[in-house]
Protein 1
Amino acid sequence: MSTKKDPVVVYSVDNCAPCDNTKKYLRQKNISFTVRDVKKNPSYNMDLLRMTGSRRVPVIVSGNTIIKGFNKTAIDKLN
């Protein structure tokens, strides 16, 4: 489980509706986050593959918590 001290990182790409919805929902919940675009930076893509075994986005990482896809219930637990 993450704590409020853990930074929130969103692995994302441009023109991705679930990615956009994830970022919008995080903003609505006042959760600060950093975006890592996996198409613009190949090392982020490799990090994503290593962590999740997949290259599918969005993925949220906070501490030991990994959230795959746009999942409001899981995001609410970050707060």
Protein 2
Amino acid sequence: MAAFTYEVTERIGCLSEESKSWRKQLNMVRWGEHDPKLDIREWMNDDKFGKGLTFTPDELAKTVEILSGCKGALEGEE
């Protein structure tokens, strides 16, 4: 079985910081031999990570488009 590898190719920003040093971050991450993707997940000390979401640029653009149509719901309006 091949070794699991990843590389954070670009740190874009920290979305939030939880207790015990966990940070929810938006980064570009290369998983295995694949092209880097936009990645949202929690990281601890840059070596431990939780479950997350990865997006191609097209997927993220579509997500932003969908969320922009939900502005009222995101602001707590019915």
